[in-house]
Predict the structure.
Amino acid sequence: MNMNDYRNVTDRIRPDDRCREEVLSMRTEETKRKSIKHRPAGRVIAAAVAAAVMACGGTAAAAKLGAFDKLINKKDRTLTYESGYTGPIDKFDRNEYEKIAPHAVSFEEVSHAENEFFSVDLDSAYFDGTELILGFTGSMKNGNPEGFSTVNGWGTLEINGQSVRPDRMDGQVIPGWGCSFVIDEGTTNNFTGSMTCILPYAARFDGSAELTVNICGLFTNERITSDENRSYSYEIMPERQENRLSMSQTVTADTSLVRQVNRTAEQDGFSLTVYSITPAMMICKSSYPESYDIAMNEEIINGTSDGHVHSPHPMCIVFDDKGNFIEPLSMDPIKMGDNEWAAASVSTDSSYLTIKWCDKNCESNENGSVEYDDQYGHHSFGYLAEMTLDLT
């Protein structure tokens, strides 16, 4: 896999500054099988009903919500860090839980684990046969005296007793998956979290399977310490084998959630293929004329008069049929069954897509400019090509 192939996937919408956690060890423990039930599509409405119950003097127990329901407003929440920076409470989790939550399942009996550092329940899951999102609730055993709002970590995954590791396009072996928790609004030590896993092609399944997840280490980036060599996030649960939090559940794939599209828009060597759309994501792949890579590589090798690379380095920005920017998801490329690699964006129910191919090296050019706003600010790029793709 060469770098140009990698760009054809990862430059689909725009560069991503996602932080990938490197993990080094793993261990598994057996826990008993738990049963699950499909939760009704109207479960999201339960949040409003529960709020009304509380307003009328109902008990907190009557208003208890599952992890996915509480994650719905996560993208809209902000956090001010010790450095003074204010931004999304979890900028790397771009899942649109309002679309995902109605299709998650709630476990009849949650799977619980705790140690001297953290207490956690695995209470729900979304699984469409390819993408698995686990929902957790938890709390710090010390009561969170520091007042932290976020907890990050990593974990390992087994399916029917077999270790499952993420696919990596660059060939690196990473045995774990990232997870994150955010504090529930109005509380001091109640956290809700998730772990998103795109299963490797060989590990995907259509029926039911026993899943075991081990949360192996927890930390927060709200407090950073540094020495002369590196910086360290504040450690909440050290990455030691005896600390691992192990939980198991039986998970059933709902492949009816997958809408196969398999359509391509192409123009002058630029192309975008949409493979499928689920409530959780749209899987697609872009490519652009080989001449751009050739020209850019020649400038890198031979240099230019001012020492900068000027060859257009294209990417595409995708909009729905109402002109709304379709945001990329912060995840590694996805390996497809034909050994091709694809990228993922948030889901859409749009009837068609507008794709604008942009030059990342400039603000605008003689053809005009493309502008959009997302949670990271305003972006303006010159564009090289524009096309539409019918999804109906």
About this structure: The first strand starts at residue 36 and ends at 38.
